[in-house]
Amino acid sequence: MKKALSLIVILCMAFSLSACRQESAEVYCWLDNIAEALGNSQLTDERNLIGVRARTEDSYTGFYKAECDRISGRDVIFGGGSAKQKEISLSGHIDSDSGEAKVRIRMNCKVIELTPDENGFFEAELSFDSGGNYIMVTYDHFTGHVELNAEYSTNMPV
What we know:
Blueprint: H1 2-18, H2 24-40, E1 52-55, E2 62-82, E3 86-107, E4 110-114, E5 121-128, E6 131-152
Antiparallel strand pairs: 1-2, 2-6, 3-4, 3-5, 3-6
């Protein structure tokens, strides 16, 4: 955490020294790239995932699938940091034999849990403001199958 904070301070200092020569769109893009790099560090590394993730356009979209046998833990699957607003359609299915699996969405400081219907299906339209936004699955002695799909919503251009 101290390294990340130090990096941010150094980058802000460098930015303040060079900002007077930058176009506002370039500065915005530069800040978004920094937020993205820092935000991606919060995603579960591929080799540590309980399930399997396939990204499509970027770290916010793709497909996730997990076959579990008495698993406990958490996968932070999609999301990251961004200076831009993002509209995401999330859908999926949880087929539980025992234990519990929950889909959790962290939108900056706010955390919501998606409740599947009686057949285990769920869907949500997510509006991610700038900042840190993550889609994750938490497992508690879970045996079963989890699938989820995240894609950009057609409601708003990216």
